[in-house]
Amino acid sequence: MALMGVQLVVSLLAACVMQRMAPHLSFARWLLCNGSLLRFKHPSEEQLCALAGKQAPKTNRRDRRQNGAVESKPLTVPKDIDLHLEATPVGVLDALVLRLFLEYQWLVDFAVYALGVYLFTEGYYCATDASAEVNIGAIWCVLTILFCLKTLYTLMSQYFRSEEGGERSVCLAFGFLSLLVAMLVLVVREDYLEFGLEPGFASLFTNLESFAKQQGYMWSIPVSKLCVKLALATVCAFIGALLAFPGLRLAQTHLDALQMNDDRPVIKILLHVSFLSPVLVLLLWVKPIARDFLANAPMGKTTVTLIPSSAFSSVRLWIVVALCLLRLALIRWHLQAYLHLAQKWVGQMRREAGRIAAIDIQRKVTRVFCYLAVVTLQYLAPVLLLLFSTLALKSLGDFSWGLVPEVPGVSPVEAGLPAEAPPAPGAGQEGGGAEMEDEVAAAVAQLLGGLSALRSLLSPVFCRGLLAFLAWWVAACQVISSLFGVYFHQYLIVTLPTTTDSAHLSR
User: Fold this and answer.
1) Is residue 430 part of a domain?
2) Which residues cross the membrane (predicted)?
3) Strand, coil or helix: 394
């Protein structure tokens, strides 16, 4: 059977290897613990006492008796002491104290294996005529998208549990803002934003009615496009709330990374390009700016075709993938900029007057490192969400990676007709009735029938519109939240010194 082919074997092998090798070989663990990141160790009480010019206490706390009870008095030191934190590479054992490290490891490792399976399926489709088979790589991409959303929801739920700091209000504010923007975007005509939602919805309704009639139900879909768009806008609001704090965090790490690499102009240019890459993604789906301009670029009194309209979709996919890879390549500079927050806080403390408890210094320095996995998830999850949405758009939307103009054919599914049902497990075989009664064959036949029915409903036209809009909306949320984060850290943080951007989830 088509499902029990090479793709399924490779998929099961990848799942088995991921499960067996995770404790021994993990790309997520290597990303943080390869020695390129430097964390700052908190000072001991003896070091703080030496810097303060006092003798270290014999015990960690000085006790004082009052009314027969023992009251502990914490050690305090002046804030303006000459404190310099010791830097050390992040080790494997250090990762054990990172909060949400297991969620981070699972998401990153799954994304790596999903990318490997996807690359194999793309090569398999190029080498063989496997158009009738179910694309296993696309299923892995969809699962990665769902896991990214689940991880972002886990992070947002931590903010909602906080009773202080206004994190819940920030998430709700970005959610309502995203709802408003999504409703405005969904009423824009296809002549300006070429997602393909209108033909996609029409294809979905036609396929649903055809599928109902095929199953013997005389059912007319009583759902209007307005209801569908309202539901889609609600989903967009939820995604906007999920991407609120990742965008704020990206803005802070971007500004700190620019400050750290002030003497490296090449790295600064790449950081700027990476930060503004979602803006370019937004423009790629604006038809007058992207497709129409490149197909008829004005050159004096004549027009020149830079990219044919038939090949523009492939070029757009390549550009989005390249921008995602660029942001993934610059993760080290952003994470190191986050880890330097400990040293930055110490420098700010030294400019203040008064005294501070030694335990507070140790706690604040340690807390920065403990939330390294959380910050890494905030950086990686939106990038992986955009990357795998683009990969799924290519596979489920029947696009091509080739840059040459192609004349796409119209499949029965794309035309709105249900796909032809696959043959039964024992069709065309004589004398094999007893063997085909095996439970494995029956399970495979049932799974194949369900996937074929789903494939007949979700036509390439519908997948193109939905996944193109998802990729564009993820980039739009990143633009909104990151630009607001730049404004916040550049201006509002000066006038609101007690406001926090929730760098930590410790409250």
Assistant:
1) no
2) 137-156, 168-188, 228-248, 269-286, 306-330, 368-393, 465-488
3) helix
Domains contained in the chain, number: 1
Round to whole Å and give the CA distance between 34 and 91: 7
- Checking if the pLDDT of 360 tops 90, the result is no
The helix/strand/coil state of 115 is helix
Residue 3 has pLDDT above 60, yes or no: no
Angstrom distance (rounded) from CA 165 to CA 175 = 18
Asked if the structure places residue 502 within a domain, the reply is no
Q: Which residues contact 316 (CB under 8 A, 6 or more apart)?
A: 284, 285, 290
Q: Any idea which of 28-32, 218-222, 486-490, 502-506 has the lowest mean pLDDT?
A: 502-506
Residues contacting residue 438 through CB under 8 Å, at least 6 positions apart = none
Domain that holds residue 277: 6-54+76-416+442-495
Closest CA to 470 of 122, 192, 197, 143: 197
Tokens of 278: 């979602």
Reference 195, options 397, 382, 478; nearest CA is 397
Give the ranges where 60-191 is alpha helix by DSSP (H): 101-127, 136-160, 167-186
Question: Is 189 within a domain?
Answer: yes
Instruction: Say if residue 414's pLDDT is above 60.
Output: no
**Stated pTM of the model:** 0.84
Of 176, 179, 174, the closest CA to residue 243 belongs to: 174
Q: Where are the alpha helices (DSSP H) in 261-306?
A: 265-284, 291-295
Strand partners, 303: 298
Q: Nearest Cα to 481, choosing from 170, 277, 148, 245?
A: 245
**Amino acid identity for residue 142 in this structure:** V
Give pLDDT, residue 497: 36
Residue recorded with tokens 């192609």 = 406
Average pLDDT of the chain, as a whole number: 80
**Interval 462-470 mean pLDDT:** 91
* Residue 506 lies inside a defined structural domain of this protein: no
Reported confidence tier of residue 448, pLDDT bands at 50, 70, 90? low
CA distance 119 to 104: 23
Q: What is the DSSP letter of 355?
A: E
CB 123 within 8 A of CB 5: no
**Residues 160, 117: Cα–Cα separation, whole Å:** 36
Task: Please check the confidence at residue 2 and state whether its pLDDT lies above 50.
Answer: no
Of 133, 138, 139, the closest CA to residue 3 belongs to: 133
Q: Which residues fall within 8 angstroms of residue 11, CB to CB, at 6 or more apart? A: 117, 136, 140
Higher pLDDT, 209 or 122: 122
- Residue 336 tokens read as 């190191």
Residues 405/409/414/416 CA torsion (nearest 10 deg): 140
Compute CA 105 distance to the chain's CA centroid, rounded to the nearest angstrom.
14
